[in-house]
Amino acid sequence: MEINNGTDVNPLWENSIVYSANGADWEHIDKNAVTKISKSYHTVSGKAKDWNKRRDSRCKVVIEGSNNTILLSFDAQDISNQATWNDGTQSELATAVEGIMSWL
To answer: How many domains does the chain have?
Structure first.
């Protein structure tokens, strides 16, 4: 998955945060609709094989709109085009949130 400030993909997408599963077909989030960006980092204990099963809940970034509507939720490690977001640490998760906030 890729995520970008809209103008980094197309100069006309000034008011958008955009994301794509393939780097070509972009979905838009209106920057004016974003009311909250949050993060959650969960430490999973137990056997290593259990870690991989529960990976989806490790490093979530959630972009919300009005009435706590989730506009986008993703695992920071799944973002392929933002290298500083995807090593799975708490500091890199904070970097992801700060990066998105800087686009608003």
So the answer is: 1
